[in-house]
Amino acid sequence: MAKKVALLQGNDACAQGALYAGCTFFGGYPITPSTEVAEVLSIELPKIGGKFIQMEDEIGAMASVIGASLTGSKALTATSGPGVSLKQELIGYACIAEVPCVIINVMRGGPSTGMPTGPGQSDVQQAKWGTHGDHATIALVPASVQEIFTETVRAFNLAEKYRMPVQVLYDEIVGHMRERIEFPEPGELEVINRAAPTVTPENYKPYDTSFGDVPPLAGFGTGYRFHVTGLNKAQDGFPTTKAEYVDAEERRQISKVEKDEARAVIEKNEEYLVDDAEVLIFAYGSTSRSARYAVNELRKEGIKAGLFRPITLWPFPEKRIAALGKKVKGIVVPEMNLGQMNLEVERVVKGTCPVLHLGRVDGEPLNPGQIIAKVKEVK
Amino acid sequence: MSKRYEIRFSGAGGQGLITAGIILAEAACINEGKHAVQSQSYGPEARGGASKSEVIISDTPIDYPKATIVDACLAMTQESADKYANGIKAGGVLLLDSDFVKNEPKGDFKIYKFPITRTAKDEIGREIVANVVALGAMIALTDAVSRDAGLKAVLAKVPEAFLDLNKKAYNTGYDKVKDLLK
Amino acid sequence: MAYDYAKHIRPGKLPHIWCPGCGHGIAMKGMIRAIDACGLEKNNTAIVSGIGCASRLPGYMDYCTLHTAHGRAAAFATGVKMARPEMNVIVVGGDGDGTAIGGNHFIHACRRNIDMTYIILNNSIYGMTGGQFSPCTPTGAKASTTVYGNPDPTFDISKLAIGAGASFVARGTAFHAAQIDKLIAEGIKHKGLAVIEILDDCPTTYGRRNKFRSVVDMMKRLKEIAVPVAAAAKMTAEQLEGKVLTGILHQENKPEYCEQYAQVIARAKCA
Hints:
The structure holds three protein chains of three kinds.
Chain A: E1 5-9, H1 10-21, E2 25-28, H2 35-47, E3 51-54, H3 58-69, E4 75-79, H4 81-97, E5 101-107, H5 124-129, E6 138-140, H6 145-162, E7 165-171, H7 172-176, E8 178-182, E9 227-229, H8 243-258, H9 260-266, E10 269-272, E11 279-282, H10 285-300, E12 305-310, E13 312-314, H11 318-327, E14 330-335, H12 341-349, E15 355-359, H13 368-375
Parallel strand pairs in A: 2-3, 2-4, 4-5, 5-7, 6-7, 11-12, 11-14, 14-15
Antiparallel strand pairs in A: 1-8, 6-13, 10-12
Helix pairs in contact in A: 1-2, 1-6, 3-4, 8-9, 10-13
Chain B: E1 4-12, H1 17-31, E2 35-40, E3 50-58, E4 70-75, H2 78-84, E5 88-97, E6 109-114, H3 116-124, H4 130-142, H5 147-157, H6 163-181
Parallel strand pairs in B: 1-4, 4-5, 5-6
Antiparallel strand pairs in B: 1-3, 2-3
Chain C: H1 24-38, E1 45-49, E2 64-67, H2 73-83, E3 88-94, H3 95-101, H4 103-112, E4 117-122, E5 125-126, E6 132-133, H5 157-164, E7 168-173, H6 177-189, E8 194-199, H7 203-207, H8 215-225, E9 226-228, H9 229-232, H10 237-240, E10 244-251, H11 257-270
Parallel strand pairs in C: 1-2, 1-3, 3-4, 4-8, 7-8, 9-10
Antiparallel strand pairs in C: 5-6, 7-10
């Protein structure tokens, strides 16, 4: 049977992807350009007995999502830069308490209110470093309406698998444009559900590393009772200031994402004409679409350009970029900000090739012509 | 049709041109199995000022989602003509509402015009369907999708009580332009 | 026979962090008796708090306990309750946590009238951080950040809750220990958002700065200022000067949020 095809807005695809992944709770606060995610879920969630709540503010929305997740619900919030700024404290809470949840950030410019209806990509470092303290980050950066659907599903999967908040960042262009989408059939995409504890309630500890570095999380109201806190805690979930516990827990929470076998699962990239490329373009989100157009045009002129498109932005694809940095004459990083991911590219290539940044923050997308011109600067 | 075809609808906010763009994109991707991307200008201008909606249609997946060189452009008002009737490719086409656009944009493209809004008001009986008249006209002008695919997309979008009204609006716009092209 | 509190308390989690003379322990015991009287099941009861001395209370309780971020308890609790309306949800926290940094969540929980019990231990100070003034510190009082006297007007938490739409509001004091469990039990039984304000004392950071020589002096003050609502009805405005009403201050039946949302679900399924 032919798949169901539709013309869908990016934000709508996000909501549909969340439903496909089994999301049953949305807590949000209205903010452009993400509001359609909330609007669609306010209609669709109650139809399946799920819950939608519009909270009093962005912080409350994030809190409600964590609370709902602790009862076992797959929970989502959607916002934009100013909202993410407000949510940061509780994103940190979800990191340390290890509560699965998904945060959608439909990016506009900034700082502050910035240009609410214009596109931006200036929250990509905030996604990594926004909340205080040491923590691991998973952030996905889809570039099309279809990919918003699949990456939202993957975000839920990673949140549940690694027991942590996962952010999906896409710019206003992808969020608001309408594009052809083929809806995956049920069962076609993997859907990961939260691992249930295998021990009896009396023996349950919420951070018991004898079950690996992602211990199972029980749900409130399911017969297990335990303590959850934002303080540094021991494996039983209770606060501790004992140096060895604090240190071990902090390190585990980072390594569960950044160790090689986790990266192999979490990292996801697309490479286009990279094998013989002399100039590499590192681009994500809608900018990667301009970059792909530029690569095709440059190839017509005989310039060997290639595109590296991260779909998982954090953890950063360190090894692959370091390897490519040794092969190419230069890396061009176009993005709708004044210099963010180029810093990470520079960090990992360690000077083996020049890294040229191309930024734009006037509310217009980087067009292929601008990228072509920048690539030609690489000597 | 060339591999990548770009159409821009522009006019005053509230005239339904974003909807016209969405219907065209739906006609292309649902009824004709092509790829299509629709995007729009967002912001305060969506209520009253000039607004635009762009549709890119292609047989293959579309990379850059915004207009590069516009193949065909519609301007329903003077303000939108001044602001958005640019970047049209050499040999491209521009359709104007002749009642509202008095200063015609200059360029290496062909201009077609008729009183689009007045047609909706006088011949169809409802000014509100001017966007559907314009959509029929643009499809006739560009053959971006077939006449039937466009009509089917229009009818899928509107409430049942307004099917006849919109069908008439679409066909009238389509026929007016085909007459101009004769 | 002495009441057995131990069965509600997590083994090995005492002693608590509260200073000698602090009223939080009195309030906790009242809360335990109330939970017991209402027959709440441990596995089906969530106790949620924010940050501060009072917010450490859930950690001692052998229930589903959630110690959140400063001010956010009501919002976390709302998520728990919405996702599992069959659970009993009790929020506990202090005056600064609930009405300053968490003020927005507090008033909106009241407005929604979601079926939770919010116990607010009002000791008129930020105790954990060393005695800075809170929205409930009396005007003129001394705190570590108001050494020249507090210039700020105060919140009346109960009035705030009533104004914001809570359908049950009661006030007790740490001195009137026997009344606390009754007020909390009534709040738990009430369908809707129930606020129970317990006037409390902080000898360490408030008392010693404000000329209370001992905990006993602070308790005496609580005894003196408290006037039961029924008694207050027979008193003149002059007699009530400087007094605080205690007992059930407000109770009404009005639509509860989770029930309202159940109707949304019913309508959506028919749509």
